[in-house]
Amino acid sequence: MIRAADILPLGEYEHRRDELRGEAMSARARRRLHLGRHVTLVFESHVTVRYQIQEILRAERISDPAAVGDEIRAYAGLLPGASELSATLFIEYADRAERDRALADLVGIDRHLHLVVRGERRTARFDPSQTDGSRVSAVQFVRFPLEPADLDAFRAGAPLQILLDHPRYRAETAVPDSLTAQLAADLEQAAAAIEHPPAPTEGDHTMYRSPSKLPEDARARLVDALNARLADGLDLQSQIKVAHWNLKGPLFPSLHPLFETFAVALAAFNDEVAERAVTLGGIARGTSRHVASRSAIAEYPAETSRDLEHVALLADRIEAYLAGVREARTTAAGLGDDESVDLFTRIVQEFEKNAWFLRASQG
Question: Which of 89-98, 215-224, 278-287, 342-351 has the weakest average pLDDT?
C-alpha cells in the first residue's frame, strides 16, 4: 500500500530524482523476465509503483493533496495483492511494421499467459480495455491470481515458470529463485497491509466549495458512497460490453442489442453519479486502475461465449451492483441528500427491470 506520506513534495523529489530513479530502475531490472525475444514481464512492487506516481506528479506538476491522493489511488491497481501478483507486460519489436503485425496476431493473449506453480496453471487477468478485438496494446497490465496452497509454495521457494502458449507466440521461462523470493516478500507485505491498514492520511477527503447546504463531513461521506458506486458502475459497464462483443448462440439477435441498451443506460447513470460527486465538492474517481482496485463486482470469466452463460453472469453482477446502490441510497437518505436519493432510486428502478429481463430469459 502506498500512502500520501510515502510521496515526496515536488521540490524534494526533484532534488532526489536521480537517486530514486536509480533505485527504481535497479528494482525493475531484478524483476524483469523475458519470454522469448519480444515479450517481457516486469513484476511491480512498492518501489516501482511509487516511482511511477512521482514521475506523473512531476510531469503534470501536481501538488494539490486531493489530486495527489487521486493519483495514488489510480496507481494502486498496479500493486501486488495478498493473493495475487501484478506485472506489466511489454510486447517489443524494433521494426514498426513487424510490431503492428504482431499486435494484431496476438489478439487473445489474455487467455494464454500463465504462471505455473505446483504444476498448475494460474492464468493471468488482463485489462479488457487494452484490446479492441483487432489488436492488443503493446503494454499490458496483468495480475496472476493465486490459490492458498500457492502462497505456501511461494514461501517454501517452490519452482515457478511463466508460460505463454498463444498460437502465434510460444515461450516458457523459469522464474529465478531470487525473483521468487522477492515475489513471496511482496505477498507478505500486501497481507500485512490488509491485516494492519495505515490510518487515513491528510488530504484523502479534501472538499471544495459546493452549492449544497449539507455540512462538509456529510458531503465527504456522500462523495465516498458515490465514488464507490461509480467504480462498480464503470466496471459493470465494461463487463456488459464484453458480453455484448463475445455473445454467441441462438439468442444472439435479441440479446446483442439488449446488452448494448444496458451499457448505454449505465454509462448515462455513471456520468450522473460522477457529476453528483463533483457537485457535492468532491472529486470523481474513475480511471481504469482506480476502478480495478475498488470495484466490488466480481471479475468476468474471459472464456465465456454462450448466450445463456452471459445472461446468468450479467444477472448476478447487476444484482451485486444494485445491492451497493441500495446501500448508498440508504446512506444518502440518512444524511438528508434528497438529490442523491432520487438518483440512486432511478438507477434501482432501471436495473431491477434489466435484471428481471435477464432472469426471465433463463426460463
Answer: 215-224
Q: Give 198's DSSP letter.
A: P
Q: Which strand (E) or helix (H) includes residue 91?
A: strand 84-91
Residue 211's φ and ψ, nearest 5 degrees, are: -70, -10
Q: Kindly report the CA angle at 194 between 193 and 198, in degrees rounded to 5?
A: 55
Q: What is the pLDDT of residue 150?
A: 87
Amino acid at 289: R
Interhelix angle 177-195/148-155, nearest 10 degrees: 130
What is the DSSP-derived secondary structure letter of residue 76?
G
Q: 93-102 — which CB contacts under 8 Å span 24+ positions?
A: 93/38, 99/138, 100/135, 102/38, 102/168, 102/169
**What cell was used for 8?**
515526496
Cα 216 to Cα 32, 209, 255: the distances in Å are 46, 9, 44
Reported as a single tens digit per residue, the pLDDT across 42-74 is 999 889 999 999 999 999 888 877 778 888 888
Give the sheet arrangement for strand 139-145, strand by strand.
Answer: 32-35, 39-43, 84-91, 139-145, 125-126
Give the single-character DSSP code of 306. B
Indicate the DSSP class of residue 30: H
> Domain map of the chain by residue range?
4-195, 216-361
Question: Three cell numbers at 109?
Answer: 493473449
The predicted model scores a pTM of 0.54
Whole-angstrom distance, CA of residue 309 vs CA of residue 28? 40
Residue in 7, 4, 1, 86 with CA at minimum distance from that of residue 52: 7
Q: Which of 333, 330, 69, 327 is nearest to 205 (CA)?
A: 69
Residue 201 pLDDT class (50, 70, 90 cuts): very low
Tell me the mean pLDDT in the region 6-27: 89
Share of the chain above pLDDT 70, in %: 96
Question: Which residue has 466496471 as its cell numbers?
Answer: 235
The CATH architecture to which 216-361 belongs is: Up-down Bundle (1.20)
